[in-house]
Amino acid sequence: MNTKNSKLFVDDFMNYVRAKDPGQPEFHQAVHEVVESLADFLLDNPRYRHTQILERMVEAERIIQFRVPWMDDRGKIHINRGYRVEMNSAIGPYKGGLRFHPTVNQSILKFLAFEQVLKNSLTSLPMGGGKGGSDFDPKNKSDNEVMRFCQSFMTELSRHIGPYSDVPAGDIGVGGREIGFLFGQYKRIRNEFTGVLTGKGVEWGGSLIRPEATGYGAVYFAKEMMKTRGESFKGKVVAVSGSGNVAQFATEKVIELGGKVVTLSDSSGSIYDPEGIDRDKLNYVMELKNVHRGRIKEYADKYAVQYMEKQRPWIVKCDVALPCATENELNLEEAKMLIGNGCFVVAEGANMPSTEEAVHYFLEKQILYGPGKAANAGGVAVSGLEMTQNSMRIAWSREEVDTKLHSIMCNIHEMCMKYGKEKSEFTNYVKGANIAGFVKVANSMMAQGLV
Ligand code: GLU
């Protein structure tokens, strides 16, 4: 290992990436984290450098951008922008979610697609990486408006996807309702009932446990990390951010394992319930968010607990933090606050929720830090299992899928330990996940020639 050489390597590579794609800060952040972890490994393994695998991996195989026109309930016309970033297909069809959110742009989708390539590789299932979406804002839209938008979006997207080429799913702003509308339109245009999307309803080809998978998986991963220090969730205080699908099922699993979740949040603020969110309160959150599409503040009003307006949860005292909202939702100052308050486990249910400075701080303090591409891989892993069930035309039971999810998360944890153990016996899960994810994709790319 040569620290000076590896720093030069990282700087050179990042200059190359920034020069090619200026103005894509989230993409640069995601690539930088990976290149930092890989530098020593690549210097020790020149075959990956000579074949320019990393240069090839940061270049999407294909990016599709398209117009999405649609009409609202009052007859007003709106024009949104749709995208699909087809990043890497070395180990399987492009696979990754669709995000509908006003912040969506190429930088965000390229960061997500790049992460997805390594994450999907870690699952050990045959899935390449992609990501897509639109700057459409589903907030305050009627079901009919969302349906018309989804139909317009899929009318174009359907030309570019298929069960053997690219299999989208959900992400922020795309849940069961949207997947239903998207699937209906794809089937209508192509006259094919196939597993072209995952996250489908169980009555029409979806997998049991898919809605639960990302949240459950993140908790299974955290459980494995805690085991290495003889710890468990029993009696632990847990701060969760977000209140969508990932946050809800992470909370459910923490409750089941005997922990106490004391926070949830949305983009307007956080609730702090020191008594803990129990099963009944969680049912209320699920109804509030999934049926009424309301705001988390209503929880504070209903249960007379503290509402922290415009605040994220990281200021409260906890043992475990599960960021399950969105990218860059946990900065250095908040990382210091968490650790100062005794937090020793951070497992990311969201993609890249910790800023680069926060990640460096976690590693410096040697806490149990599970980066998103490892900790939240359960979602896409069960999407992979949904694809398998669709191909076999069968449906597995809850227990079968949950057992497979659990063993996939344990396997990812093991791979992180294998590649991330440092001399001090500390496991750097960032390094472990990045190297383990990279090796399989890189070897496959080399085997397939310069394509
Ligand atoms: N959007 C999820 C993720 O970030 C799931 C993707 C999928 O199931 O394809 O991994």
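^ glutamic acid complex. The domain at 213-366 is CATH 3.40.50.720 (Rossmann fold). Residues 398-420 form the longest helix (23 residues).
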